[in-house]
């Protein structure tokens, strides 16, 4: 990684991006990715030195009602990155998102960038899962369903239809990457093809029945108004 010249978020002095300490004001420094252009910037900076974007502020708290990590059984930490609220485990780096928050992240590129900037700044401690097991929802304690997101991402997440989604350490960045590479459009196209094939099969079955009973009529069994957009696709996961 190339070294860049950035400004100290405390005193504004020019500092190399690989510096851990500002030589002028002695503030400890740590870099993160800009939520808009992905350029390097220091944690605590109000603006990106590259594109001028306002940095998403990160607020951290320990909410006694935040539930427990379904894997580690320790209290989840509440994080607020700009307008996005999530809960994370400080031991395994898992992330819990409420349904509406996950829907918003999937549909909004700036929210994705802010979350990626936050996640990229972590030191991953989570271990890859070697066996399939069902885990409880942090909010209600019921075992969650496992779902291959969009049936094509290859990322299997744990979903509570009433409350939200659990992501192991590297799963949320993988899903955001899948969306940004056009994966949702491919998934929707595949779903449309499956619906068309099913419609054709049912139409043929109705035609045969019509011949047998002399009616000759074939009715449409599917609504032609299919759901469009990422928000509708994600919202359907919780229905």
Q: Can you tell me about this structure?
A:
This protein is an alpha+beta fold and 239 residues long. It folds into 2 domains: 1-53, no CATH class; 58-180, no CATH class. Helices cover 28% and strands 18% of the residues. The chain is built from 5 helices and 11 strands. It has helices at residues 99-107, 109-120, 171-180, 183-213, 230-235, and strands at 5-7, 14-16, 31-33, 40-42, 58-61, 77-81, 84-88, 95-98, 145-148, 156-160, 164-167. The strands form 3 sheets. It has a 7-stranded antiparallel β-sheet. A hairpin with a 6-residue loop joins strand 3 and strand 4 (40-42). The longest helix is centred in the C-terminal third of the chain and has 31 residues, at 183-213. The protein is elongated. Residues 212-228 have low confidence and may be disordered.
Question: Top keywords for this entry?
Answer:
2 domains; two-stranded antiparallel sheet; 5 helices; 28% helix; alpha+beta; 239 residues; 7-stranded antiparallel sheet; 11 strands
